[in-house]
Amino acid sequence: MQTLLLTRPDDWHLHLRDGLQLSAILPDTVAHFARALIMPNLKPPLTTVASVLAYRSRILAALPKGADFTPLMTLYLTENTSPAEIILAKQSGVIHGIKFYPAGATTHSEAGVQDITRVWPILETMEKLDLPLLVHGEVSSPEVDPFDREQVFLDRYLAPLVEKFSNLRVVLEHITTSEAVEFVRHSSQKVAATITPHHMFLNRSALFQGGLRPHYYCLPVLKREKHRRAILDAAISGNPKFFLGTDSAPHSRFSKESGCACAGIYNAPVALELCTEIFSNANALNRLEGFTSFYGTDFYELRRNQGILSLEESPWTVPKEVSFGADHLVPFCAGESMQWRVKN
User: Fold this and answer.
1) The whole model's pTM is what?
2) CA nearest to 4, candidates 321, 287, 296
3) Which residue of 15, 33, 130, 344 lies most exposed, with the fewest beta carbons within 10 A?
4) Residue of 11, 155, 247, 298 marked active site
5) Would residue 247 show up in a list of annotated catalytic residues for this protein?
6) pLDDT tens for residues 17-40?
């Protein structure tokens, strides 16, 4: 039985919801990660420092007894965000990024940015304070094909942005295309990207295997095999610009298996095990620790974790559903066998 030791990983893109749902799913992340960057797209969104701090307090109160876990917070950017609020965010010491959602691009993004030029003053303040911008990189224009929205965003908005704000740290979240890989690879060291387990593992054909698979529906949507391959190659490359952000996003079984399925994949219970399996199959286990434990931490200029997490090559079966407050949800790879398992 093979055993693998990793410096405790961090998750650089996570959705935790709130209330009973938060309490139900938080242990899955705590069991695997020392820290996680928490997204602010609640309903209502976390558009003020005060609301972010209150949410952080709720997360800490929901932690399992004795848990060693630190939530890293983000602020939701709107066209009404003031430079003063950005200064408060920096001074808080617990807000590590400002999240940019194009209005209507994903779950609870209605309050996002419609005209990017209206937030130039905010980006100027962030650049001066060295506070990272976290980008959901898709246009939301209805005339753009959903499979092309990331590429169009890169050309239309992100390229001019990183040129104008050359000292602003930017993370392009959950990249899904070869064009995004190349954009990040050829940009300055101020630009990085997160990669999810599901975008490394699946292409868009998985959405239609044996029928429509709503539990594989996420935004950005899965892409062609050539793009999945490019994402995987970036993850296993050892390039520190690419690091793990699970984008674990829970929705109840009812809201996924409905006439208008919600976008999001809940991968927290299997994210680390699946990454290990993916890297093992690619003969790249020696690069897993950098991807999960070092590169994101270094980009966000935090201290690397001191603890050790142990995985063993020991098959187990993913539950078909898990509790989600008053509801239930279907985790990623439900009912399937995982070859690796976290021991501690």
Assistant:
1) 0.97
2) 287
3) 344
4) 247
5) yes
6) 999 999 999 999 999 999 999 999
